[in-house]
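Tip: read the tokens left to right.
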């Protein structure tokens, strides 16, 4: 199914509007566009090239965000202009579409830093997987973060259905169906908040595992050590992301 929906590179380049991408493009993170004048040259940046180093950057950004000390990097005009020639994000983040879980804000990153893919409940479909495959194969991100969050409405809706409630209308039902196996794998009972939190964790872990299992491109990149897939949960109250 995924192969049927996969974008060809030529097609994908057109859709994503990207130029100058190579599998080794990370090396270009510290330089501005060719032909830029001194006034337009952004602050040089040393790009992390290992998953551990990238996670350290994201964790440090999350620490700043949680402490109310965000630096809001890479959002000024010179930096924006430096990205016209191409993008070299340090990580791909698949997060819930929930408006309270904005990866660039949560990790205190800026333009061009994160290749962000979002779907309610981190549900995978061909478009989501294809987008992540693009980040892995053509943008060469060394880290993919699957990010769920406390109080996820998509997971709560699935819990409601599992308990016998009516199926949601429209294509929302497809989201619930995709999350249902993870929820059914969690033992119900006890504290309601703890149960929902366990369901959220189960869905994040499931999505991370399914991504690697369902995508030959991601699987091969992980097996070759070029990419690492991690799962994390964002806490709405503290602002902190915990890696599972
Ligand atoms: Zn959510």
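Filled-in amino acids:
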């Amino acid at each position: 199914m995924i192969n049927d929906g996969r974008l060809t590179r030529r097609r994908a380049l057109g859709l994503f509007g990207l130029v100058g991408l190579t599998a080794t493009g990370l090396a270009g993170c510290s330089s501005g566009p060719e032909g830029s004048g001194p006034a337009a040259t952004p602050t040089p940046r040393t790009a992390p090239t290992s998953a551990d180093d990238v996670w350290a950057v994201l964790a440090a950004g999350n620490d700043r965000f949680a402490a109310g000390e965000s630096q809001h990097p890479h959002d000024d005009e010179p930096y924006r202009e430096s990205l016209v020639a191409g993008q070299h994000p340090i990580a791909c983040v698949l997060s819930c579409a929930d408006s309270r879980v904005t990866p660039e804000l949560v990790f205190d990153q800026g333009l061009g830093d994160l290749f962000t893919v979002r779907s309610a409940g981190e549900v995978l479909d061909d478009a989501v997987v294809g987008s992540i495959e693009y980040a892995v194969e053509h943008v060469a991100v060394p880290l993919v973060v699957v990010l769920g969050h406390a109080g996820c409405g998509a997971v709560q809706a699935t819990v409601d259905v599992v308990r016998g409630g009516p199926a949601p209308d429209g294509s929302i039902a497809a989201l619930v169906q995709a999350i249902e196996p993870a929820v059914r794998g969690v033992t119900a009972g006890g504290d309601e908040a703890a149960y929902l939190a366990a369901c959220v964790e189960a869905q994040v872990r499931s999505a991370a595992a399914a991504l690697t299992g369902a995508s030959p491109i991601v699987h091969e990149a992980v097996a070759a050590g070029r990419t690492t897939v991690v799962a994390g949960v964002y806490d709405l109250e503290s602002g902190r992301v915990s890696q599972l």
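Confidence is low (pLDDT under 50) at residues 1-40. The first strand starts at residue 91 and ends at 95.
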